[in-house]
Known about the structure:
Layout: H1 2-41, H2 53-58, E1 68-76, E2 81-88, H3 91-101, E3 109-110, H4 117-123, E4 133-138, E5 146-152, E6 160-167
Amino acid sequence: MIRRRLITLTIIVLLIGIPAGYLVISAGQSRRSGKDKEAEASAQGLREDWPSGMQRRIFELPIPGNAIGVQYYETNNWKASRMYVKFRTTSAGLDRFLSGVGTGRAALETGKVTIAERDVKITGWYFGPGVDWAGTVHKNKKPRPTQNITVNMTDPAAPVVYVVSAATP
Length: 169
């Protein structure tokens, strides 16, 4: 009789305890996830981190794996969504990035800065004299994004890439 009650009590504890424990763990994870998303949504300016894989796919930004100093910022409104990205890579990494976007090094025009003044104000980037700039604009049919690419070629072995990828619905 005592053994039967012990088995019944154990079953009841397991039937209630396991789901309750799962709910507590799940709620904690969900809350942390929400805080991460809130921090990203409230970001003002460039973040020193890689954009998520989904963001890179949406904005068609194939950042090379060897890129360093990656920074990004995303803005969204009813007219357009923009992703601002800056990173340093190698000469081969620049070629991989450009071909991944759908263009090539031959499209880069020496001395051309393709980032608009409006975007410069948002990011705080500086495109002044004394730097070997090269730029191109890679246009796609809507709804695919258009990429304005400007590269600091002062050190050809380690170029710094600035990109504004804009998607309009």
